[in-house]
TrEMBL record:
UniProt keyword ATP-binding, yes or no: yes
InterPro entries the UniProt entry points to: DCK/DGK, Deoxyribonucleoside_kinase, DNK_dom, P-loop_NTPase
Nucleotide-binding as UniProt keyword: yes
Coiled coil: none
Family, per entry: Belongs to the DCK/DGK family.
CDD domains (UniProt xref): dNK (cd01673)
GO cellular component: cytoplasm
This protein's name: Deoxynucleoside kinase
Biological classification of the source: Bacteria, Bacillati, Bacillota, Bacilli, Bacillales
Length: 211
């Protein structure tokens, strides 16, 4: 049976890690969580985006590249299915929003080199919500580095995600995308919402496991 690689994407604070942990348990998938708060540039970035964006994005890219190399070698190539709370394509979404004209082309060239040959997701789950919902959830988890989060930056990021995912589906018609609108969906605190999400995902998992 071919291993399945599921990735979950969406803006900051939307619930990617929480849902990936539930999918890991429900569908017996190895869990991959991205390295975020170990990034030494994160707090500085939220205080001064222009000054620290390149350092921040390069740190994320290199760490995600290493994680996916390890996942490919240690799990997918061994026939073990994986769910990750990110897709590495997110790097280009953030980079296009934060990097200036001089640094962006350099970054994208490095991204293309590093991601060539990395495993591609079999299923992408895209979480989205309004700016009000996203900001409320960021405030609820009350992480130090996010307390100075700029609302305008988050509004733009949500728009960037929506635009990117529309283009992604057109460019990759062979990769199913499940879009979950999370304004009225709380799979963290409402068990019935989680069961509804798992029920929606189940047919995709069944189909992938039959391939």
């Amino acid at each position: 049976m071919k291993p399945i690689f599921v990735t979950i994407e969406g803006p900051i604070g939307i619930g990617k890690t929480s849902l990936s942990r539930e999918l890991s348990k429900a569908f017996e998938l190895n869990l991959l969580e991205e390295i975020v708060y170990e990034n030494p540039f994160l707090g500085k970035f939220y205080e001064n985006i222009a000054e620290w964006s390149f350092q921040l994005e390069m740190f994320f890219l290199c760490n995600r590249y290493k994680q996916l190399q390890d996942i490919h070698r240690d799990y997918l190539r061994q026939g073990v299915s994986v769910v990750a709370d990110y897709n590495i394509f997110k790097n280009t979404i953030f980079a296009r929003r934060t990097l200036d004209g001089e640094n962006l082309p350099k970054y994208l060239r490095i991204y293309d080199i590093l991601t060539e040959g990395l495993p591609e997701a079999n299923l992408v789950i895209y979480l989205t919500a309004s700016i009000d919902t996203v900001m409320k959830r960021i405030a609820m988890r009350d992480r130090d580095v996010e307390r100075n989060m700029d609302v305008g930056y988050m509004e733009n990021l949500i728009a960037d995600y929506n635009e990117f995912m529309e283009a992604f589906e057109q460019r990759h018609p062979h990769i199913p995308v499940i879009k979950l609108q999370c304004d009225d969906l709380d799979f963290v605190h409402r068990p019935e919402d989680l069961q509804g999400v798992l029920k929606q995902i189940q047919p995709y998992m069944d189909a992938l496991r039959k391939e």
